[in-house]
Amino acid sequence: MNAMNIRTETVADRDAVHALLRTAFDGDDEARLVQSLHADGDVVLSLVAETEGTVCGHVLFSRLHVINGDARFPAVALAPLAVSPALQRQGIAARLVEEAHQRLITGGETLSVVLGEPAYYGRFGYRHENATNFESDYQCEALQAVQWGNDAPSTGKLVYAPAFGGL
């Protein structure tokens, strides 16, 4: 594979990201989710990987809130993560997640939640054990969290961006 660049997604990337998501997920659900998250202003971080000027990977983190009594804590939700099928298993997704995590930590985020394959996301520090005390419509073994620092909430209700209600 030629040199790969990871950068912040721009408006000019939206069509390429949409096409990538449709191909990687064999349907429109994730592409529509990303469109809605952008339209609603709920995107915290969206990165693309590109090689030879072509978008070949994408990761998005949206705003999530943890409600605990009267307190409301900001967090992020990782979804979706995609790589062009022809370029999968080459470390592109891992580089996207690692770069995103560094940017999120630098930006002051303390908690990220993902609904995904535990064996895969475990390599980035996500653990179901970190999510078991959260109330969530998605509570299952695939619900995982990673906490950065000591200020991250560990209990409460996970409230996703409204766009997730359309899935």
Write out key terms for the chains shown.
single chain; 167 residues; alpha+beta; 8-stranded mixed β-sheet; 4 helices; globular
Could you describe the 3D structure shown?
There is one protein chain. By secondary structure, the protein is α+β, with helices and mostly antiparallel strands. It contains 4 helices and 8 strands; from the N terminus they run E-H-H-E-E-E-H-E-H-E-E-E. It has helices at 14-25, 29-40, 92-106, 118-121; strands spanning 4-8, 43-51, 54-68, 71-83, 111-115, 134-135, 143-147, 156-159. Strands 1, 2, 3, 4, 5, 6, 7 and 8 form an 8-stranded mixed sheet that branches. Helix 1 (14-25) runs antiparallel to helix 2 (29-40). The longest helix has 15 residues, at 92-106. The protein is globular and about 50 Å long. The model has no long low-confidence stretch (mean pLDDT 94).
Condensed summary:
The chain is of the alpha+beta class and 167 residues long.
What layout of secondary structure does this protein have?
Elements: E1 4-8, H1 14-25, H2 29-40, E2 43-51, E3 54-68, E4 71-83, H3 92-106, E5 111-115, H4 118-121, E6 134-135, E7 143-147, E8 156-159
Helix pairs in contact: 1-2
Largest sheet: 8 strands, mixed
Label the overall shape.
globular
Element-level helix/strand string? EHHEEEHEHEEE
Radius of gyration: 15 Å
Per DSSP, the total helix count is: 4
Span of the ends, CA to CA: 34 Å
| Helical residues, percent | 25-40%
DSSP E strands, number: 8
Strand content: 25-35%
Helix and strand composition category: alpha+beta
- pLDDT average, as an integer? 94
Low confidence ranges: none
